[in-house]
Amino acid sequence: MSDRQNTIALLSKDDSTMSQMMQAIEELEQGGFDRRISIGLSSSVTVDLLGLYLRKHALMAGSRVDIVPGNYDDPIGDIDLFMSSGVEHMVLVPFFDNLLPSFEAQLETLPQEAIDAKEAELRGRYRIVFEKARSMNTLYLALFHRFGRTTETAGNDRVVAVLARYNVALREEAAAFSNIRIIDSEEIVRTVGQGAAFDMRFYFLNKAPYTRTFMNEFARRLSAAARNFGAHFYKVLVLDCDNTLWGGVIGEDLLKGVRLGPYDYPGNVFWRMQHEIAALERNGVLLCLCTKNNPEDVEEVLRDHPDMVLRNEQIVAKKVNWVDKPSNLRELADELNVGIDSFVFMDDSAFECEAVRQQLPMVKTVQVPSNLSDYPRVMQGVKELFLAGGISEESRSKTEQYRQRANAKESMVQFASHDEYLASLGIEVGLTRNSAGSVARISELSMKSNQFNLTTKRYSLAEIERMMQVPDHAVYSLVVSDKFGSAGLTGVVVMRYEGAVAFVENFLMSCRVIGRGVEFAIWKRIFADAMQRKCYEVRAEYIPTQKNAQVADFYDRLGMAFSIETDGAVRQYSQSAHTFVAPETPWITINYAE
Amino acid sequence: MLNENVLKQVMATLLKVDAESIGPESSMDNIPNWDSLRHMNLVLALEEEFGVTIPDEDAGNITSYKLIKLVLDDLLNAKG
Question: I need a surface site. Which of A14, A474, A489, A558 has the fewest CB within 10 A?
């Protein structure tokens, strides 16, 4: 094996350690790739490990994925970010327990109106998100799943009910958008097991609820749904006949001897598999037969066997002869005028499978298991190859059904614009100057905030206290709330006044509240205060760090005049307080307190 | 006994820096890549590498080489 193959083998092992895996990923990503796509991750919890596992699964499929992380719980802002970074695919992972803090625990005591209101907000918000994400090639939407366990033996507590309802809401809102692919995250939890899926410690510490095991399975499914990120588009299913479509050998057992039918083993296994194959055909998969038999024998089964599910009209091409299978497959590819790498080949014979694998490695070869009870599982894998990223018959009709229901509900919750949606939230900002009771929280926030932090100056408790007391400084803090509750103290502005100039020493916010315009709404008041102190010019600067690129152009967006970029890419701004006009945020009510 | 070379290697991989640059003075303050997300993954990787479970109250706080070494030493000694 080459080094590269060794490294890929290491990746596919489930027991490689995280540091081995990261090393392997980085090593493999050094190579050249024909297929390279960017995926944006947007979530209301921390999901950065998903990025690592998506990179892993992409590499295993021969593609390279670049990850663009979004901000915390800001899907609308994330889409802007993704679009400006050239992202074509995004993964959206809303988290049920985090809709409100510890939502599942709160549910039993939450009034029905609050649950209804939250659903309306959810619908409104995600409708805007989906509308905005229309330009994305694909949006993978993970549904809500339960985080805690139920103690209710009937398994039917309030969490179950609300969860089901909100998932219907997500599906309905998503139904109108053809670029959305739903990911059933409840199914991922079931697959890996509730106990192995979640990490309570990092949920409470960092809002990172998922384990590596969960993320690996999530990424594996997503990669399958994305058809290995464009690596494979399977279109053709080529089937052997004897012991693949029916039990026994038609040439020896004759029509009456082959095992096929709805009731008796093993014929019932083959009969079931034929139904699965027929369903694939209905969804556009091209079916071919390739079997070493006498043509008239096979025709007889197709025409006369009472329990055959597959008939001639479902088969687009047949190679019933004694020629080797690789040659037959090549001819089929020519006849159908499709690439041979879009073929999936199924045969019960290890010999035939090996011959095709050797000579046509680009064909996906699947051996029918000799242990027939495994056949459904193997068939499931084949179905995934074709359907994972596509539309199955079932989901098509479901989509239809959801679309009708979605239309009926449209009048209930429809916001014409993002602004209107924001207005419905009833956002209030409590802006306080020199709030003595909040010194500890202000200092803490200044120590912790990295991303939305314009100068990354850190302040100790004593410094904050001092600045609140001296006349040439002011410390503004803001508390954001909406109709669902308060997000607490989540923003700080530190001002210094010198002669006729007011300096913004720092401005920082918690990522929790970004994307609602709060960052713009507070400045009118701060500028007015400056003028009252006869400071007619306001200066501010952005000092870049490794982590705060998202606010590099914040003061430009705020409407301040850029003056100069100095050493270390520090951007300085200077703005006349008289002519300053902040961006409009009519949906926000500011309550000011001294 | 804690193998410090392994520790340095894990930290280097997770924090995307050279193993040689990691030493007793390394901390979240002087390694720019060491943010809260990478820290979380670092804790997971350390637990896995050394076969220990880092208690909740330490997990968020071991933000320097010295503190990590201290906590790992304790856990490994306790394991015997």
Answer: A14
